[in-house]
Structures are given as structure tokens and as C-alpha cells.
Amino acid sequence: MLQCMSNLRNIASELNPGVSADFLSTLERKLSGERFDVVVLGGFKRGKSTLINAMVGSNILPTGVVPLTSVITKLRYGNKTKAD
User: Fold this and answer.
1) Contact, 5 vs 27, CB < 8 A?
2) pLDDT averaged per 10 residues, the chain (length 84)
3) Is the pTM of this model over 0.85?
């Protein structure tokens, strides 16, 4: 994946020096650090928590009939599965 990002950055630099290459360099650095932010936005009760649970392969975020995750929630890898 990182090699692909590096190749893409090099191509972007040749085609459009500046903004694209800078953006891809930042993205490559974040991916190499194995930490990046993903923002999921949407209205109440539209399946955002269900989508994130499916993406991580575990029911970490609560889901239900009433809104349960109405605050900013950050997920990160650790030894225990828990929600703070």
C-alpha cells in the first residue's frame, strides 16, 4: 500500500506539482504511522455506528432504537475491547 502511495505521489508531482503531491505526502506519512482519522457524518439514526462496527469487524459501538453515540467517539487499537 505504501509503495502504491509513493508511486501515486511521484506521478502527481510530475502532473501537477504542489497541492496534490503535498496532500499525498501527508497521507503517505499518516499511513506509514498506522494511524489516521476517519470522519463519519450523518443524521441521527442513519447507521453510522453500524457501518463502523462492520468496518472493524466487531460490535464495539452501541446501536439501538434511540441515538447512543451523539458525541465524538474515537476508536483505537488496544489489548482490550472497551468503549470510553
Assistant:
1) yes
2) 71 72 75 76 85 87 77 80 66
3) no
User: Could you tell me the three cell numbers for 72?
Assistant: 465524538
Q: What Rg, from alpha-carbon coordinates, does the chain have?
A: 17
Contact residues for 66 (Cβ-Cβ < 8 A; gap 6+): none
CA distances from 51 to 5, 34, 58, 66, 73 (A): 26, 21, 11, 16, 14
DSSP 2: H
Q: What ranges do the domains of the chain cover?
A: 2-32, 39-78
Other C-beta atoms closer than 10 Å to the C-beta of 12 total 18
